[in-house]
């Protein structure tokens, strides 16, 4: 679960547009591209595979109207191919205090982004300096260790509805995972994901079941007294699922609890 996110909102034609501190990107790939009648050719939204846009548009209203969010990197991270796809369980925060931050609004703002962006690097969480709060720094450490760009690595959650903790979603967690799965299936297919990094056991178990990743190929245990173990499993088609201790609980910047060696090993296989 990812914590509460705070956006800098810039009003444009009545729609909130995310802003971030990432440098503006340039692309020479320009084409006419529309989603639901909205032109996206002047945003990064046109870089994302149409199948992903279609899966987003197919989300049911009972997901779209809820407080939540979908992606944690900008549309250009979903242009593919991608070595790694990162998944948490669901967005954290308060569905009451953040009632207006709906899944539908999040998708619209994401599609209108005009620069590369990562929630881990560029967003202010809990009002803190971007990239410095809680698990953000731990995620950025992992990106450095495995040699990936956080703004170019697709990231999301198993389901998109916000809660203050996993326990609050017990009654509807399985249903929400089912409703949100088509988006992940579209991402995995469109950007040719080779490895899925799952933050926490619930997400890892869910992805292993979905992808039928049953064969263990690697494991790593913390070098401390608690000895939490992270594992990697492979599906018949070669897609790997890595399940790691959640960075909100384990400080990945500490070598004794850093699963980056396991992630790096699987990425290099």
Structure, explained:
Helix content is 28%, strand content 18%. It contains eight helices and twelve strands. A six-stranded mixed beta sheet has the order 8-6-9-12-11-10, sandwiched between helices. Strands 1-7 form a two-stranded antiparallel sheet. It has a two-stranded antiparallel ribbon with strand order 2-3. Helix 1 runs antiparallel to helix 6 (173-190) and helix 5 crosses helix 8 (260-267). The relative contact order is 0.17.
Summarize the structure.
This protein is 28% helix and 18% strand. The longest helix has 18 residues.
What topology emerges from the helices and strands here?
Layout: E1 5-6, E2 8-12, E3 15-19, E4 34-35, E5 38-39, H1 50-57, H2 61-64, E6 84-88, H3 103-111, H4 119-122, E7 124-125, H5 135-146, E8 155-157, H6 173-190, E9 195-199, H7 201-211, E10 215-221, E11 229-234, E12 240-244, H8 260-267
Parallel strand pairs: 6-8, 6-9, 9-12
Antiparallel strand pairs: 1-7, 2-3, 4-5, 10-11, 11-12
Helix pairs in contact: 1-6, 5-8
The CATH topology is given as Uracil-DNA Glycosylase, subunit E
What's the quaternary structure here?
single chain
One letter per element, helices H and strands E, the order comes to EEEEEHHEHHEHEHEHEEEH
* N-C termini distance: 28 Å
The CATH architecture category equals 3-Layer(aba) Sandwich
Report the portion of residues in β strands. Answer: 15-25%
Number of strands: 12
Q: Describe the global form.
A: globular
Please identify which CATH superfamily we are dealing with.
Uracil-DNA glycosylase-like domain
Sketch the major β-sheet.
6 strands, mixed
Helix content: 25-40%
């Amino acid at each position: 679960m990812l914590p509460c996110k705070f956006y800098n909102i810039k009003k444009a034609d009545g729609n909130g547009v995310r802003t971030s501190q990432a440098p503006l990107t340039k692309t020479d790939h320009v084409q006419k591209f529309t989603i639901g009648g909205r032109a996206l050719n002047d945003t990064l939204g046109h870089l994302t595979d149409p199948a992903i846009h279609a899966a987003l548009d197919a989300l049911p209203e009972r997901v779209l109207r809820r407080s939540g969010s979908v992606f944690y990197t900008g549309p250009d991270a979903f242009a593919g191919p991608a070595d790694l796809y990162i998944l948490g369980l669901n967005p954290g925060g308060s569905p009451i205090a953040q009632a207006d931050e709906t899944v539908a609004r999040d998708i619209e703002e994401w599609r209108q982004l005009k620069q590369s962006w990562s929630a881990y690097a560029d967003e202010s969480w809990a009002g803190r300096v971007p990239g410095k709060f809680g698990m953000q720094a731990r995620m950025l450490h992992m990106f450095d260790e495995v040699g990936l760009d956080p703004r170019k690595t697709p990231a999301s959650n198993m389901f998109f509805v916000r809660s203050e903790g996993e326990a609050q979603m017990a009654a509807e967690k399985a249903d929400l995972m089912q409703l949100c799965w088509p988006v992940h299936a579209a991402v995995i297919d469109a950007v040719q994901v080779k490895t899925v990094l799952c933050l926490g056991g619930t997400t890892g178990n869910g992805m292993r079941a979905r992808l039928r990743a049953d064969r263990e190929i690697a494991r790593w245990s913390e070098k401390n007294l608690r000895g939490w173990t992270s594992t990697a499993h492979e599906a018949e088609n070669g897609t790997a699922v890595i399940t790691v201790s959640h960075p909100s609980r384990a400080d990945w910047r500490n070598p004794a609890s850093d699963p980056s060696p396991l992630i790096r090993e699987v990425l290099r296989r």
